[in-house]
Amino acid sequence: MDENTSDELMPREKLLQYGASSLTDEELLAIFLRTGIKGLPVMALSRHVLQAFGSFRALLTAELADFCKIKGLGQTQYIQLQATKEMTKRYLLQQMEVEETIDSPHLAIMYFQSVLENDEREIFMVLFLNNKHHLIKAEKMFLGTINQASVYSREIIKEALKCNAAAIIVAHNHPSGSCTPSEADRYLTRKIEMACDLVDIRFVDHIIVGKGSYFSFEENKLDS
Question: Whole domain around residue 150: which residue ranges?
Answer without folding.
Answer: 103-221
